[in-house]
Design a protein that fits this description.
20 strands; single chain; globular
């Protein structure tokens, strides 16, 4: 069997944890399996590198940021290979250029295009454990690129797909996917399995267990994932296509505090205005989530939407620079907001889910600012200060406790 194992930064944060991961991988190797390991940067290394860069330049070029941040994973894989060697097992560390993990050229948010597997296969055939840098690739200019925070998950899934792996295991500091963040909702329950679609919503809506693009890729290529803890031997959560005949009404609650609201006020009530706004943002790789357009008045209307808080400054600059083209009278923003969402494939066939969610928020005196829905999720925008209380209230309303 060929097993891809991905370990997050907390799993390799120090010497003891590096050796813990090394031993777990060697256990798999000694069963006769081929083992490919994908690693993130150690602990808070990436945060430290970002802080260091901003000491030098508050607005560093994205290409140079990728050059810098890629060093974190290279440190992890080299140290891991050394640890395995010390334990008497042959291993080799490879960075994205050595593997040849081809990406687009969008620095800081590149997407994988293809992976050359010849070098990996050669090392596996030599009975080595292959340890590969997550989070990074190489573009057509031979520049290092990165895949965005959490991108090591996407690296692991892409490798599993390219190598036709028999299993893809994602190890982190939690032992699976829960009905809510157990640090906020103490009685949250671990889920035995989650569908790709539900996990994609969890990942996109603030649950930090998996990178959303990794789930998209797993669904596209049929890569079954297992989320496990690197620190315990507890059974994890399986992420796969829908299999249960009857679904839970709601699978879980997610919250996202990395949110800001932008309001483009007083634009002309004519065709094409919304296109101009969102095309402008899309061209600069700024994602938009909840969107509300007001009823027209005096040939004018307002358009409000949410973006990641990390994109707020760039989005506001772009919109203000193009205010006349967009025919906007005012452009305003609000940072003290957060999203809370309920997710569940069973919601489509059960009326009254939204009403129950809104009733629970009303009972907790939580005001709703914006609403968005899909077939398997309902998201509301609320004040950031209310988000933890709202999560616990909604979690209890749908009887999701352990």
């Amino acid at each position: 069997m060929l097993i891809v194992k991905k370990f997050g930064g907390s799993s390799v944060a120090d010497k003891d944890r590096i050796y813990n991961v090394a031993r777990r991988c060697i256990e798999e190797y000694e069963k006769g399996n081929e083992v490919v390991v994908v690693l993130s940067a150690m602990g808070k290394t990436t945060d430290g590198l970002i802080a260091k860069a901003r000491e030098i330049n508050p607005n560093p070029p994205k290409r140079e940021m990728d050059m810098l941040l890629a060093t974190g994973e290279q440190t992890s894989v080299a140290l891991m290979s050394m640890a395995m060697s010390a334990l008497g097992v042959p291993a080799v560390s490879l960075n994205a250029a050595q593997v040849a993990m081809h990406t687009t050229s969008a620095y800081g948010m590149a997407k994988l295009k293809r992976i050359d597997t010849e070098r990996i296969r050669h090392e596996l055939d030599a009975r080595k454990i292959v340890i590969i840098t997550g989070f990074q690739g190489v573009n057509k200019y031979d520049d290092i690129t990165t895949l965005g925070r959490g991108g090591s998950d996407t690296t692991a899934v892409a490798l599993a797909a390219a190598l036709h792996a028999d299993a893809c295991e994602i190890y982190t500091d939690v032992d699976g996917v829960y009905t809510a963040d157990p640090r906020i909702v103490p009685n949250a329950r671990k889920l035995a399995e989650v569908s790709y679609d539900e996990m994609l919503e969890f990942a996109s809506l603030g649950a930090k267990v998996l990178h959303n693009r990794s789930v998209e890729m797993a669904k596209r290529y049929g890569v079954q994932l297992v989320v496990l803890s690197s620190l315990t031997r507890a059974e994890g959560t399986i992420i796969k296509e829908e299999t249960k005949v009857e679904r839970m009404l709601v699978s879980g609650v997610a919250a996202d505090k990395n949110v800001a609201r932008i309001s483009v006020i007083g634009v002309k009530n004519e065709p094409g205005i919304a296109f101009k706004i969102f095309n402008l943002l899309a061209r600069h790789h700024i994602n938009v989530d909840i969107i509300i357009q007001s009823i027209g008045r005096e040939e004018r209307k307002d358009i409000s939407f949410t973006v990641a808080r990390t994109d707020l400054q760039e989005a506001m600059t772009l919109l203000n620079e193009n205010r006349e083209v967009l025919t906007a009278q005012t452009i305003a923003c609000e940072e003290g907001v957060a999203k809370i969402s309920i997710i569940g494939a069973g919601m489509t066939s059960n009326p009254g889910v939204a009403a129950k969610m809104f009733e629970s928020l009303y009972s907790a005196n939580v005001n709703i600012k914006m609403i968005a829905t899909s077939e398997i999720r309902i998201t509301v925008l609320i004040a950031e200060e209310d988000v933890n209380r709202a999560m616990r209230t909604v979690h209890d309303a749908f009887d999701l406790a352990d």
